[in-house]
Amino acid sequence: MTPAAIIALIRDIAIATALGFLVYRIYTDGQNAVKVADLKALQKQLDTNTQTVARWSQEASHAQTQRIQDLATIHDAIAAHSQPIVVLRDRQTNSSSVSSAAAGANGQSAACRGADAGPRTDTVDTRPDISAFETKYEGFLADCRAAIASWPH
After folding, report:
1. If we measure between CA atoms, which residue out of 13, 148, 152 comes closest to residue 67?
2. Calpha distance 107→45 (Å, rounded)
3. Which of 4, 18, 41, 121 has a 20 to 30 Å separation from 59 between CA atoms?
């Protein structure tokens, strides 16, 4: 072998090696290489997310339990009100009790058209309406408190 052939052979081997290294480098850089550190960081993030979601779920569960207790307390408090709340209804006055004709000059008194019925006796118990009002709006407030309590913190 001549020295020129040996130099040409070394040159060809160096070119083939460089070309092979270049192809290998392009292949390994082009793919998505997943490293162990990346997997550990991803697993840690997933664990943190799982714990956060579990905490939110627990907060929502506690809020719902508190809402049920609030509603029971509200219903018990409203049911404990047994005294009626009595109001008198407006009724029209008896206009016939007032005379319409003036007394005459001859000394006769004015004619009366009937007696007034006296004080009002038609009463209405408004306790059921007030209890329904309290139940409705205290229930709304309990729902609002539960929604605020279950909101993720």
Report:
1. 148
2. 107
3. 41
Tell me which residue has tokens 């979601």: 53
Q: Rounded to whole angstroms, how far apart are CA atoms 57 and 152?
A: 9
**Is residue 63 pLDDT above 90, yes or no?**
yes
Q: What is the pLDDT of residues 79-131, one digit of tens each?
A: 888 888 888 776 555 555 555 555 556 666 655 555 555 566 677 888 899 99
Is the distance from CB of 97 to CB of 116 less than 8 angstroms?
yes
Give the pair of three-digit tokens for residue 127: 């306790």
SS3 letters for 38-61? HHHHHHHHHHHHHHHHHHHHHHHH
* 70, amino acid identity: D
SS3 label, residue 82: coil
